[in-house]
Amino acid sequence: MSNQENGTAVSGVQFPQTANFTGIFAPSGIEADVPRLEVIGGAVPMDLAGAFFRVAPDPQFPPLAGDDIWFNGDGMVSRFGFGGGTVSLKQRWVRTRKFVAEREAGKALFGAYRNPLTDDPAVAGMVRSTANTNVIVHAGKLLALKEDSPPVWMDPETLETIDPAYTFGGRMTSETFTAHPKIDAQTGEMLAFGYAARGLCTPDMAYYVIDAQGEIVHEAWFELPYYCMMHDFAFTQDYVVFHVVPIVGSWERLHARLPHFGFDRGREVFLGVMPRRGQAADLRWFRAPTCFASHVMNAHNVGSVIHFDVPTAAGNMFPFFPDTEGAPFDPAAAAARMTRWTVDMAANSDEIRMAPLADLVGEFPRIDDRFAGLANRHGWQLVQDATKPVDLPGMRSATGMMMNTLAHIDCTTGETDTWWVGPTSSLQEPAFIPRPGSTTEGDGYLVVIENRLAENASRLLLFAALELGAGPIATLAIPFRIRPGLHGNWAPASALAA
Ligand code: V55
Ligand code: FE
């Protein structure tokens, strides 16, 4: 239960006393096996069987450069195992090539986020994955993902790392694989892409269809309008949809030791649409004036018309990837609201139409994943409700990444239902858990980690997914602090046994 296992002492670790390494962002470094979390309120449904996996950046060593961004920490995977009304917790660092090399050296060898020019020459050419962005089960494998590298294959029961650079039996020739692959519940297929697929800062994209058995059965290669952070995408029954937003990067930036990415307000936004089994020649680009969108809620098509639902902001959401022209970060422009982007493959126009779906400010949208690619009625997301008080030293309102509210959106009416976590906590991204035996959209639960900021502690909360306002149906204490994470997914017991 420490970062000293396997005999290599990690002593004298001293992290920088910067905002990225203190308070809620203090590294955790805790690998743990907790057989049963204490239920301190409500009850966990007896029939819930499966696991909620999530991952957080959690640096093993102090950074080479003296400070570092949150996005660059080593992936630490948490596995909340549900069964018989109890929840266990297992937490392990992913044994990436980076993690193993640095543990052997007893210090950091890799430098700045996505800048190999800042690495120790000893690791030149090594896969740089931190595997810190998402974890998802497909075809019996737990994949820990970082969008600059191939997946890391882990055992979904033990969290043992099996292959630190999994290439689907050599079939994947892209150098990278997205952290946001999508699973089509109707077919069991996983749809995915890699950008910078032929090397860092290249505009090359590879698109893959992976069947329910985990075999790559289709691929397509094409070029982006410009190199940028291709963080997420969407699919519909008939199409895949790629949004291109101006978080741009270049070798010039890397040589200048600037952050890999910066926001370029001078560039247009594009939406690429391609049939699911299409090739580059079938891909069509639509365009809109500059804006920013990251995580997609869902998409669907009605014939040739594609609806793509995504929290959309006027400007940059990431202060650590600054404006390329030096404009100061603008929190108002960073506010994202759920927006429907609509394009028509049969139209002559290449316009992207945009219309609001809800007036909440926030991010991290989720759906009942059984309805991915279909017209979903229900959506959930985190919200920054700036009207609610914050009772923490140094913080006056719910700005920045201070997600203080969980929301349900009825996409057919625009109505919302919210639950505020209180003045001393924030929330991590939720995941939807279907109620065992149910097939109706939204029939299930939301699982979410609460950051208890005043006491540096964490809890696991379970909600009835369509009754958020009623508060959690179960509250579980976690005996140590869980570092803020990015993404995670539920896998039912049947998917773990496969
Ligand atoms: C994101 C997170 C990343 C990353 C790129 O939008 C994008 C989130 C945790 O790392 O490398
Ligand atoms: Fe993400």
UniProtKB/TrEMBL annotation:
Tell me its EC number(s), please: 1.13.11.-
Known cofactor(s): Fe(2+)
**Keywords in alphabetical order:** Dioxygenase, Iron, Metal-binding, Oxidoreductase
Co-factor binding details = Binds 1 Fe(2+) ion per subunit.
Task: Please give the InterPro entries that the UniProt record associates with this protein.
Answer: Carotenoid_Oase (IPR004294)
Domain of life, per UniProt, equals Bacteria
Give the family per the record.
Belongs to the carotenoid oxygenase family.
**What is the protein's name according to its record?**
Dioxygenase
Q: Which organism is it from?
A: Novosphingobium cyanobacteriorum
